[in-house]
Amino acid sequence: MNVLQDRARDCSTAEWDARVKLAATYRVFYMLGWHELIFNHITLRVPDAADQLLINPFGLAYDEVTASNLVKIDFSGRILDGSPWPVNPAGLTIHSAVHANVPDAHCVMHIHTTASVAVACMEDGLEDNNIYSSQLYDSVTYHTFEGTTVHDDEKARMIASLGDKRLMILRNHGLLSHGTTLGHAFVLIWTLNRACEIQLATQSMRGHTLRVDPRISERSTRDALQFDPRFGAGEQVLDALIRRLDRSDTSYRQ
């Protein structure tokens, strides 16, 4: 409890609130099965500080992440809050590149679900054949696999691949999203992962897949409610999942 009290006292109210919601989001990922042992990351800008991020401690599983044990770092990976936990170099390479080069990338998410990695391994990538893919018209880009992402020279190529898109399929690797809020980044990556799940199931069946007309997808993307600011732009979705989490476990608030 002393660690919690010390961390809460050292933080601004805005930072502590951000820590609580980020920790909750890690637990939501765990609840959804979007965890990879102690690997992968969700990073969040510290709301009242320049060029500072919150990231999960390397060595803890997602269901062990709490508000107080999240690590505050700068874009070079220097630990700023005295945390005893290290930071995964691979996560730092990917996430710091996006945060440093995309001004409104408040949150960056990266996952390795089975469906997303399977689609990332397909030469044609994402196929527009279902309601979820149809909500991502001209929204997804690709980055060629260069091995484990621990080399700084890959950052420039990754950012060039990302361009002005909020979603990227890392070839042979997984998915990445960035958004203006936690909820925004979440609903983007959820939609893309769901499209990958449907593609994985569809391609296991006999017959030919029924492609969506690009004109329909363009309209469907404009009409997608989960991205609409009038409906929270993903915040309502994430908040609903956090309420579900709260009914069984609130230890992330520590």
Automatic annotation (TrEMBL):
InterPro entries: Aldolase-II_Adducin_sf, Aldolase_II/adducin_N, Aldolase_II/adducin_N_sf. It comes from the Bacteria. Residues 20-200 form the Class II aldolase/adducin N-terminal domain. Coiled coil: none annotated. Transmembrane segments: none annotated. Belongs to the aldolase class II family. This is Ribulose-5-phosphate 4-epimerase/fuculose-1-phosphate aldolase. It comes from Paraburkholderia silvatlantica. The lineage of its organism: Bacteria, Pseudomonadati, Pseudomonadota, Betaproteobacteria, Burkholderiales.
